[in-house]
Each structure stands twice: as structure tokens, then as C-alpha cells.
Amino acid sequence: MAKVLGAVTVNQERCKGCDLCVVACPTKVLALQPKEVNNKGYHFAYMQNPEACIGCSSCATVCPDGCIEVYRVIVK
Amino acid sequence: MTIEEIIKPENRVYAKPRLLNDNNMHYCPGCSHGVVHRLIAEIVEEMGIEDKTIGIAPVGCAVFAYNYVDIDWIEAAHGRAPAIATAVKRLNPSRMVFTYQGDGDLAAIGTCETIHAANRGENIVIIFINNGIYGMTGGQMAPTTLEGMKTSTTPYGRRIDLNGYPLNITSLVAQLDGTCYVTRQAVHTPAAVRKTKNAIKQAFQNSMDGKGTSLVEIVSTCSSGWKMTPVQANKWMEENMFAKYPLGDIKNTVKQ
Amino acid sequence: MKEEVRLMKGNEAIAHAAIRYGVDGYFGYPITPQSEILETLEAEMPWETTGMVVLQAESEVAAINMVYAGAACGKAVMTSSSSPGVSLKQEGISYIAAGELPALIVNVMRGGPGLGTIHPSQADYFQATKGGGHGDYHLIVLAPSTVQEMADFVTLGFDLAFKYRTPAMILADGIVGQMMEKVVLPPARPRRTDEEIARQCPWAITGRPATRKPNVITTLELDTAQMERNNERYQRTYHVIEQNEVRYEKFMTEDADYLIVAFGSMARICQKSIEEAREQGIKIGLIRPITLWPFPYQAIKELSDKVKGILVVELNAGQMIEDVRLAVEGNLPVHHFGRLGGIVPNPQEVLEAFNNKFPDAKK
Question: Are B185 and B219 a contacting pair, CB within 8 Å?
Fold first, then answer.
């Protein structure tokens, strides 16, 4: 069966750490940086659990700031 | 396969639309405005109408919409966007003209313009962000504020005897013969965002096809005004706002 | 349509002149004594001939914002109203000025304040020339005294508005709006094409072609330094207008011992007063400001050196007199005569007032 591998990038300076992508992710890939902040002081989102990503774009769909790009590869 | 191998241009399945420019949006974290701005940019790109689209920005938080979506914009006086859209569309019938308004702009100071533009059946789109509060001025009561909801001008909660009832303006507009498509949506989940995108797309098509006025209400959050986290605000919206403002099409006279 | 001689009301002349000028849109709301402008346009159905949009809006507020919108698109657009309605338009006019947009606003004045009366007045002089709405701005204000000027000032108003990217106002009164006179209507010219608008108004909202950046018409600027620069730019434009666009008319001023200053319909009445005065041996001249802003300060100052006194005659309690006094800088007595509440004085009444104010003139 084909396996879907996904990954996302987060524009750290655009991200405001609103947490909505974290909640929207069905496979618990994303989290907010617990300590690190961007230039505006926000704890930005990152892939805490990257191997779980299926590239479904749910995070990018709910992101209010257009920070997230989604990549997907189907491995047969 | 490593993450670096996945993150390559040929594997990209989602990126912010080109028309949503790189300016950092001034909205608070989690604000629904950002999602709707992005959807507008996506739809205009997908429909190939960026040379035909004219946006009318309101007074309120979305006053700076023109800083983020790279189309031609006119910034309206408070509440007057439907009158402005009326004239722009009448003088430029081949253009796709939409207003972008909040609940104070559309349902309080601009009620007259909203009702009459819709009643004339102007071939415009009204995008209505309803979060039940005045965001830009610091969280005052809006016409759509729910009963009991605390705002800076209803610090003990909205009282019907003092402040009247929450105004369901979208249902009111749906009764007007000039409207062809009136719908209420939200952007709190991926599925809701996709439905909203389809709704706005249909509304834009109606404007191009000259079918009459389309109004897309987006029940939204204002986490700063509501004094909640964005995640809490979404939950509160589902539990409270949707009871008074249920999602779904209210009117659609256009065959799809 | 060729040049044509017609008999019509001043209000009707404005409507016909607008169609012939190639106006793109008129947005109005009924109010006495100017409703004939909207009525005439609806009857002429110019959308069938020139493509001009005519719309009866839901309010004066909506109408002026439609004008703001059309002007933002680089179109030649106008509205008309009368005093209470023009008060409602003030916010929109301020936006049009701040947006540096060309537009024409017609005020056929009636008596105020409040709902006032439907009878003629000139009591909106302050409102028209000193701002009216909020912020530091000016309108180019044209004061017609004949039906011919009602027609001519549509062309002049739009030409100046587009030349300086600023709103212009025709400040008429109920007399000029309602009276019938011979008028020569200009030959019709075509409305500008979208290509011409895009070329002449590169700032216009047209929908963004791939060849340019987005155009935005906004009057909001939170950066105070930039907002000051914006204001300085407005003021530079106003200064150029003050240098180049002052218009006035003189009548029998060459040998005058006294001067009457009056505008609009009052200037016509005062001409007759002056003729009667001269039969009695009193040499009065008249200066009629045609542009109330920019005001002919210099012309009045020059004449003030040659006369003994000035009477300002207006259908108000004394508004333009303030500008006349500024012009003469205290050099000589300046008196006022006006009737209020919609009453229009006859020439004898004006002359009687003059004799009361300047008893030495007869000697």
C-alpha cells in the first residue's frame, strides 16, 4: 500500500503562536515552541513530531497568517 | 525519506496565495480575518479575476485589508461600503466588486446601506465578519453581541431591556428580493474553511454573472475582545454563537 | 447633440449640462428646491444615450459615498442636494478631499438652520468655503448668478476638479435653481473611455492589471509624519488654486465711490440697486465673487483703496462679510445687509439699506 509522507514549513516571523494549527492537526505533528520566540515574542509553531505528518494541509487551512507551506510525497 | 527530501518545490501541495502579500498582518493571534483574507486571495487567483476584482474595505479591524491582498481597494467611511460598491459596480459593470465588513460597520452604522444595496439587487458581494463585538475600538457591544455577553460597554453582560436583542441581519437580508445567495459560514475548522471558500467562490461568480446581491456571513471569533485564547474562542463560538447564528445556506436562488 | 438654445430652470440646466459634459454618474436624493436635477436626469434617460449612470440613492449620505466611489474610479461623478442634505454629505466630502479625488457637488441653498425653509438662502457660505466637514481642506466653490452659469459651471467645476484632483462645489441658491432663463447648452462630448481614464488617472481604481501595483484609495494614515506630509501636499494644491483660479466680475466700479459685494442671485438684484442709485447720483459699483473659494481678496483690496465704504449684501446674517473685512484689512467701513428665513430683498430695499448705512453718500 502506498504511504503518504508529509512535512510542513512554518514562516517563523509571520507566526503569532495562536495554536490553531496545533489543534487542527489530526496526527499531532505540530506544537508551539516551548521556550524559543520570534522577533515579535511569539512562541511559533514547529513540527514536534514530523514523522506523523501526512501532508493533509489542515494546519495551513486554518492558519490565520498564511505561515504554513505543506509538502507531500506518496511512496509506493 | 528525510524531511529535507520531502520539502522540495515539486512536492509542495499548499502555500499561501501569491495575492496575499508578505506584509505581516496587524490582526491579533488567531483572528478569523486572516483566514478570510487568504481565502479571498486564493479565490481571486483561482478564478483568474485579479484584474477585475475591486475590494471595498470597512472601518474596523479590517480597515487595513488593502495592505494584505494585492488587488485594487477603496477604503470606505464607516458603514458606507455597500453604497460605494454599488457605484463602483454600476460604473464598471464588468468588474467583480465585494465589500468586506464587520458587524458594527454592516449591522449598526451601515444598516441602511446594507439593506438598500441588497434590496436593489446590486451585483455585488458582501462579506460579513460577525464576531459580536467591536474589535478595533477595544471590545464594545455590537448589534450582534449575544444576550449576557460581556463587552466593555456591557460590562455585566448584554441586557435585552437596556440594549435590545442581538440583530440577525443576515436572515433579514435574505428576505429581500434583490439577494440571490445568503449564507452563514465559519472558519474554525479545516472543513468549515473549505465550505466558506466554496461559498465565497459562488458569491463571486454570482457577481460576475449579474445574479443579484450575495452575502456571506462568517461567524468569527475575537479572542482579544472576548478575552480568551484563540482555541477557547473557537470553542465558545461553537457553543454560543452558532446557537443564535446557525451555519448553512439561508437562501440560494442560483442553480449550481 | 449640438449647441442648443433653450428656456429652462437652473436646476434643469445643470442636468442637461451634466449629460452634455459626458458625466459618468449622478447619485442624488430628493430635496427641495433642487429635485428637478434628479427628475430631469431620470426623464432624459442618459443611460440609453451616453451610458451615464443615474441613481436615486437611499440617502444623501449614501449618495455622496457613491460619488466618492465613482471619483475613486477616475469617473466624472456628481451629486446635488440642498442645505440640510449637504450637511449630511459633509463627512463624505471630507473623504473626497482627503482622497484627492475630483468630484462635483451642487448645493441649491435653502434657509436654515435645521430643517429651515424651502425658500432661497445663502446661509451655507461658511459651510462651503471654510471646510464644512472635518479636517483641513477646501472645496473650489463656484457661485452662479444665472441659469447660463448653472450650465457653464458644470463644465468648469469638473475641469477644475480633475485639474487639481479636488472636489468642486456649485453653491447656488433657490432662486437660481428655480428661475427660468435662456440658456445656451454646450455641444455634447463623449464620455471618456476606460483607456482614457487609465491614462489620465493612473491612480484610479480599475481592477489591477498585471502591469501595475495595486491602487488603493484610502484616507487613513496612522503614521503621523506621513499624515503631516499628506496635509502639506493638500495645502500646496490649495495654494496653487488660490494663485490661479480666483474668478470675479466687476460692474461699474471704475468711477465708484462705494462698493457693494454680493454673490449669486443677490448680485443680480444689487445690479438693479446700483442702477437706481446712479439715477439718484450715488456712484456705487459692484464686485461679484464667482469663486467664493478661492476668494478674490486682492481684487477687493485694490478697489477698497478707491472707495469710501463697502456694503456686503447676502441672504444670510453676515458670512461673506468676514472675508471682505479680511480683504480690506480695516481700511474702511464694511457694513452688512441681509434678509433671513428665505426672504429675498428687492433692489429698493437694498438701496434703502445702503442709504441707512452710508447716510453721507447722498450728500
Answer: yes
